[in-house]
Amino acid sequence: MLSTVLLEAANIGNAYGVAALGAGVAAAGGGIGIGLIGSGAVQSIARQPDAIGDIRSNMILAAALVEGAAFFAMVIGLLVIFLK
Amino acid sequence: MTVNQNRKITVNQMLKPIFLTLLFNLFLGISFSFGENEGKKEGEEKFNAGETIMEHVTDNHSWHILGHTSLPLPVIIYSDKGVECFSSSKFEEGRLAVQGNYNYGLIKGHIRVIGADIKIDEAATAKIWDFSITKNVASLFIGITVMLMIFLSVAKSYRKNAGKAPSGLQSWIEPLILFVRDDIAKPSIGEKHYRRFMPYLLTIFFFIWVNNLLGLIPIFPGGVNLTGNIAITLTLAVLTFIITTLNGNKHYWRHIFAMPGVPLWVLPLITLIEIMGVFLKPFVLMIRLFANIMAGHIIILSFISLIFIFGDMAKWIGYSVSPLSVGFSIFMGTLELLVAFLQAYVFTLLSAIYFGAAVEEHHHPPQHHDTEQQAII
Amino acid sequence: MDLVKPEIGLMFWMILSFGIVLFLLTKFAWKPITKALNERDASIQDALDTAKRTKDEMVALKSDNEKLLVQARAERDLMLKEARDTKDAIIAEAKTKAAAEANKMIKTAREAINSEKNAAIAELKNQVAILSVDIAEKILRHELANDDKQKALMTNLMKDVNLN
Q1: Which residues on chain A are in Cβ contact (under 8 Å) with B295?
Q2: FRET pair for B265, CA 20 to 30 Å: which of A10, B290, B363, C127?
Q3: Any idea which of C26-40, C42-56, C88-102 has the lowest mean pLDDT?
Q4: Same domain (yes/no): B113, B228
Q5: What are the tens digits of pLDDT across the range B120-146?
């Protein structure tokens, strides 16, 4: 309610607000995903320190793939903005 | 040969100055290109961050270098009336600029056919095809030139140094080529078939990486957001898709259309999902690369724009924000260096995995009961 | 839609340029480079194989050498034994020869002594005879110094002859 009022007041339009919200949620989702990957990686390193090289490269690879999913939402947001 | 070897500087010695120069250029160049807005008085237009960022990230018909200098690039238009070519310096936004086969004007960065009253003639606009050498195309040529220079010279030094240890540029590039072969191609595709796909994998790996790096350099001839352009990534993803489809063997298609080992009532659903997957995987490749690189550019540009947004409020706020902004930009720039390599690696790795899935041989599951009976007999 | 709509012109140039780059690099860069890398791999593998083979040959050679050495030692011992035997034989032979020589010399000496002895005895016999005659002469002279002793002797002698 409040956000709608604010948005109308600023005359931006609902679409932008929702797009920004979507991007924010996507960032949160990406953050949680990469955080889980990081925590799993750190725990694995604690269990077996001599596999640190393998774990590090796998962690970065998985983080890049998860970020791809998060970027989907960013692209949808962009579509919302540009498809007026 | 020995004279050259005495004059060579080691890689480690070169890294620090290069890195510092890149960083210095990073914030200096970007600041300069925004600098045209600084000396403005009250009443002149405020710094519009969104517009500036979009101008840097999207395509242009002329290449804006520093301040008010722009490099005009040729405009090539193909229509049903023939091919036309002229300089983009004739264009000015929103004005009837060129009267060739049609009346061309630049509306919002796109070339349209317009009437005398700056109204877009939709029917005629649909007939023209814009094949201009835009900023992105010029940067593409530059990136390709860099790639050809590097790799053709490396190939030549292989011919010269036949049988000897690598030296110079060769010793930079060789570990990368071996990395692509041994860590990306061989594990994903397998020993038998990987040689077929090596040229393509090597080319896209270095293409994406070189162009990502070129995009991070803020001044001419770099600084163009090439791989963050959806047309480029679309082409790369389509190429991967075509190569995967052309190389798919019987088992690949069988796994898509009639996955073995699945109960019959769930098979239509699986087939539908698999068919969607065939198109979705290259699409995701495209989106991943495009979004990563574009987002990186936008973030760095946003941090720099913060300085000018605050500067518009009051000069001193702008100055005080600048160290913070520059610090964040340097951090993001370093992250973008990692992302440049990482996105090239991920794209190439996923392409290799798709190729591997396409040419995978059929593995018979081990038949336990047969061997037992034979043992008894 | 600007940002997410692909431009046809850009796609055309991209396909063209990427195709050219792919073709050029495959023909002039990746082929020679992979060939050179494979050759280097093969030569390294070759060198490793040769090294291993040489090592094996060295080991075989060493064992051969050891065998030869053992054989040589046996032969040497045999030769030494033969030499020793020969030495003993020669010494024994020399001894027998010397003994024979000695015997011969002794015999010769003994014969010489014998003949000397005989000669000495003959000489002695002569001397004894001469001495006896001398003594007899002296005795006769002494006995027959006066005429009475000569007449006594003659009467004795005539008695003996008449009795015969």
Answers
A1: 71, 74
A2: B363
A3: C26-40
A4: no
A5: 777 777 778 888 888 899 999 999 999
ipTM comes to: 0.78
Minimum CA–CA partner of C1 in chain A: A82
pLDDT at B369: 55
| CA nearest neighbour of C25 among B244, B351, B173, B184 | B173
Q: Residue B277, Cβ neighbours under 10 Å: how many?
A: 11
> How many separate domains does chain A show?
1
pLDDT in tens, A11-50: 566 777 888 888 888 889 999 999 999 999 999 999 999 9
CA B222-B228-B230 angle, 5° bins: 135
Domain region containing B247: 136-358
Which residues lie below 8 Å from residue A23, measured CB to CB, with a gap of 6+?
A73, A74, A77
Assess whether B149 and B289 both reside in one domain.
Answer: yes
Within 63-92 of B, beta carbons closer than 8 Å to C belong to 76
- Do C1 and A79 make contact, defined as CB atoms within 8 angstroms? yes
- Interfacial residues of C (vs B; Cβ cutoff 8 Å): 2-15, 17-18, 20-22, 24-26, 28-34, 36-37, 39-40, 43
Give pTM, 2 decimals: 0.72
What gap in Å lies between CA B299 and CA B292, rounded to an integer? 11
CATH number at residue A22: 1.20.20.10
> Chain B interface residues facing chain A, Cβ-Cβ under 8 Å?
284, 287-288, 290-292, 295, 342-343, 345-346, 349
